Amino acid sequence: MTAQLALSQLLNGLQLGVLLFLLAAGLTLVFGIMSFVNLAHGSLYMLGAYFGAATFAKTDSFTLAILAATVGAGLVGLLLDRFALTKLYTRDHLDQVLATFGLILFFNELIRMIWGPGSIFMQVPDALSQTVDIFGFTYPSYRFAIIGAGLAVALGLYLLIQKTRVGMLIRAGATHPHMVASLGVNIKWLNTLVFALGAALAGLAGVMSGPIMSVQPGMGEPVLILTLVVIIIGGLGSIRGAFYAALIVGVVDTLGRAFMPTIMRGIFERNTADAAGPALASMLIYLFMALVLALKPQGLFPATAGATR
Amino acid sequence: MKLLPTAIDWRAPRTIVAIVVIATFALLPVLVGDEGGFYVKFATRVLIYALAAIGLNFILGFGGMVSFGHAMYVMLGAYCVAIPAQHEITSGWAHIAIALAMTTVIAAGAGAVALRTTGIAFIMITLAFAQMLFFGAVSLKEYGGDDGLTLATRSNFALFDISSNAGLYYFAFVCVLVALYLSWRAVLSPFGLILRGSKANTRRALALGHPVFRYQLVAYVLSALACAVAGVLLANLTQFASPAYGAWTLSGELIVIVILGGLGTVFGPLVGAVLLLALEEVLPTLVEATLPDYKSNWMLLLGLFIFFIALALKRGVFGSLRGGKQ
Amino acid sequence: MTALVTENLVKRFGGVQATDNVSLTVEDGQLHAIIGPNGAGKSTLIGQIAGEIAPDSGHVALLGKDVTTLSVFARANLGLARTYQITQLAKEFTALDNVLMATNARASHNFSFWKNAHDDSDAVSHSLAALAKVGLLDAKNRTVAELAHGEQRQLEIAMALATGPKVLLLDEPLAGMSQGESAAMIALLKSLKGRYPILLVEHDMDAVFSLADRISVLVYGRIIASGTPEEIRNNVEVRAAYLGEEATA
What we know:
Chain A is an all-alpha fold. Helices cover 75% and strands 3% of the residues of chain A. In chain A, strands 1-2 form a two-stranded antiparallel sheet. By secondary structure, chain B is mainly alpha-helical. Chain B has 13 helices and two strands, in the order αααααβααααβαααα. Chain B has a two-stranded antiparallel ribbon. The two termini of chain B are 22 Å apart. In chain C, the strands form two sheets. Chain C has a six-stranded mixed sheet with strand order 6-7-8-3-9-10, with helices on both faces. A four-stranded antiparallel sheet of chain C has the order 2-1-4-5, with helices on one face. The radius of gyration of chain C is 18 Å and the shape is globular. Classes of the chains: A mainly alpha, B mainly alpha, C alpha/beta. The B-C interface holds B 2, 5-6, 182, 185-186, 188-194, 196-197, 200-201, 203-212, 214-215, 218 and C 50, 52, 71-74, 76-77, 81-82, 84, 88-93, 97-98, 100-102, 104-105, 108-120, 123, 159, 163.
């Protein structure tokens, strides 16, 4: 019983972890290459969820929903990059934070205008609505699918970045942006590509989490903040760091919420434990982040020695 | 001892605007004549936001530390009123003392970790710490959790009676004046010189022998203290404390206020608070008048407004005015 | 007492040996110059002495005290003052405020919040004296952006002097200067010589040979020769590895 619970919570943590990775990958790459901090990344996640939910409701096809979310969010990302954000890339981080903070308010309200202030419902696709049995233990197949899809995307990204020419440029851009520019590579084009790719991944994360989390205005912010924690822990600009940190954060957060109150009860008396348990659980990843930073200010897998100095 | 830290150019636009703004605030309850009414409460709110923004500006404008989590100290201050009040401690001075003590401890800890990083990581970490405290407050079930805590009565400041709205207003006004004066002095002091110098060139400041980290940490704690006092006042104004006071959107609004007023000007935060809060009142009315169907969606325009401020308003409204000889 | 000692300093960046077992001393009152072609590892060496770069192994001693593990500001507080090859100044500050910031570093910390920094007449006169020493007194109220390149370099020296240094570390003070500016700077360096122990890194050979008491030649991170200007001038290895290159270039 407890072992099963632990296993299913572990899988829940893994599932949260891969979703966080999809968000963190784009954010950390954009930071690495453009030194740009995009708080509106969570809005792209939200847009993906809405595009997907709307398409799914209309067409009943989850494949189309995924396509709509990914391509839609990617397109919005492309437009943002080309028309709204270009001027900000050379500005200091303060301006970037402020501008993208404005964009969050804008997108939240835009969604509220179009789809209303309440949350909209998105069903688990029929094909994945069952549970899977392993070792006499059942787990929803949809959540398995998320884990699978997330890991597949991670593998794809790894291949893209390690094995292709574009990937080589991305890697070089993250460590030596000026050098890439001076090699005659059209860095603008590379920026746009990375930004749109990141946006598409955020959209994908949005649509995949649609059936298990509530699709509502402002849904991007809590996720965004978790994602920021992930990329700090992983090391800014490091996609490998983002991957490991996302899994760690997903698992630590989920297990903490599930078991911290019980653990606390074993140590403190019941009243104290009941009061402090949930509080400590929700603060766990932030404490973890503080610990990582205290030991390694550059994160676990720093991308470059000087990037965040 | 000189009363003013530096000579003043009385004919500079900045001086004139500052005097007009302060005089208007001083006379406001008399001018609007609605003792305890809407305008006095609104102006109190402006002063409270200004106080928090003065705190933030001290590190953001003069120290170059972009904290995206200062709302957490506002929330902390508010809870330092509401929780003691629940345990029947109603003395306002006690509330302030608790708020200052708690904030010093928490800000010293959070600041020490956050200041190990710079730039973008610092922004994100301050945001994350604020979220941490936010969720901490949400999980305080004994103290209302998500719903927050209501205050039966306002704090009791023996000498200052803040039970009336005008009383609270003038108390907040005095707090803002004190904060403006102190930050003005501090910015021009040797401490302020080193803080500003470290912002301009950290490497040089270190090479000269300045322990930059210590200066920044002290500045960070001081700025948090101003926000905590703002939180004490906010709890008294609304007679309420809730995790929402620590929401990251409030941290964002504080940054907007600082930029809107003029980054790195002592008086800018007050001007910025007036402008932003006025805009947040005017926009809904404006939208209702022109597009009644979209009355509730005025935040869309606010978002765009903030976006364009970031793009276009380099020096802020007050910052664009000509100052004295400096 | 020996002002500054490095002992078997080693620093690698990846496969590159940027500092290869460098040992050198600056005696009290001595001007010790380091010369070497571009990429010889001069900046890395300076960085390790100032504390901005941690060596892989070896030691740095300042006034007889091992400072290898001390931070940049702690070394500065012990009396090590430096200038940078690329000027490091507070750009929006006036010349006076830059020096005032340095003057305020004389005490290891200054948590004074009340009094205007400009009202501290002792600090201001000390700062003005430092500006006067480098010939920038008239420029005291100009911001760094309004100063010519040569003046900015002089300001760097004024700041180093204002901290009340015991050892000076000067990183290419003549870099990028016009001929007139160079002459003024060389005169300034001459006036400092003998009053402070100085480690000077410089490209300008004429300046180095006219100023230095001792010269060390750094090539590929290694000191290939060290001696009086006369000895260095006549050193075969140096001529081959370095001066020869210069001559043919």
